[in-house]
Amino acid sequence: MDVLASGAEQVVFCSDPGSGLRAVIAIASTALGPALGGTRFHPYASEDEAVADALRLASAMAYKNSLAGLDLGGGKAVIIGDPRTDKTEALLRAYGRFVESLGGRYLTACDVGTTNADLDTVARETRFAHGRSEVYGGCGDSSVLTAFGVFQGMRAAAQHRWGTPTLAGRTVAVAGVGKVGSWLVDRLVADGADVVVTDVDPDAVARVRARHPGVQVAADTAALVRTPADVYAPCALGGALDDETVAVLGAEIVCGGANNQLAHDGIAAQLVERGALYAPDYLVNAGGVIQVEDERHGFSFARAEAKAAGIFDVALRVFAAAEAEGVSPAVAADRLAEERIAAVGRLATIRLPR
């Protein structure tokens, strides 16, 4: 692919044959600050596929961090390989050295295929690894506040659509009850919602049912989408909202924790046409990055949770702007993120004394 035409500030290719490390670090923007984004460990079919994913994810992080009000740009790293068989101490530490070589332009954290413990290992070679284990003073599992942020976004959507910020008495269909999805179910049940779930992992479903016996289970995602529900919450893989899904979706609100939910740009308009209120994924799932960012200041869960609660107000702004401007919430969210990047990023032109 044409990396230079991508608009990214910097793309770094990392190779250490001794440990087997093959990685790509993409920095989309540092207009608001150092580029923060997780490290994804995945068996990509080709180098081109890995580069494309890193660039796409880095751009999404720039928008996420901007809309979350953080003084951070957007970046992402991908390590090519199978985390179950290729992950070693030497590989992670070699990767940490490449992160350190960027001098703080890129701050890394967890993503698919990496854990808090992995970041502890990476941090043995760099000052710029975050999302570490609590025993090392880190923020620990960021899925807790990711789910909390999704819940706040869902409350805002309920406020905008039904005039009250609660899911009590509403049916919420949750696709994917891994870490984020299961924490979200806890919030929804406590709020008085009726919940229907599905997951490809039957053990994940069983764990949710053990805590909440009243939760109903759909056979699979295709069945869940067709289940009568007020809210559909995609909390598994990206691309969950495609043409086929939107065509049969009956929910009035779509709000979930999965990244990159829209299979293509036209999906946002299709949701508007069907009368469904879409809460942009990178807006509502920003609780995790807020939790990781707080680690830079000496982690306080209470402080991070208070910041993540602000997702409610930002979501209301996005819904109001979309309505006023006659665009989808996805477009409105992009505009608000871009406006902040331009306005605050411009301040870097005011030179400070050294």
Automatic annotation (TrEMBL):
It holds the Pfam family ELFV_dehydrog. InterPro entries: Aminoacid_DH-like_N_sf, Glu/Leu/Phe/Val/Trp_DH, Glu/Leu/Phe/Val/Trp_DH_C, Glu/Leu/Phe/Val/Trp_DH_dimer, Glu/Leu/Phe/Val_DH_AS, Glu/Phe/Leu/Val/Trp_DH_bac/arc, NAD(P)-bd_dom_sf. One of its GO terms (molecular function) is nucleotide binding. Signal peptide: none annotated. Keywords: NAD, Nucleotide-binding, Oxidoreductase. CDD domains: NAD_bind_Leu_Phe_Val_DH. SMART domains: ELFV_dehydrog. Gene3D superfamilies: Leucine Dehydrogenase, chain A, domain 1, NAD(P)-binding Rossmann-like Domain. This is Valine dehydrogenase (NAD+). It comes from Geodermatophilus nigrescens.
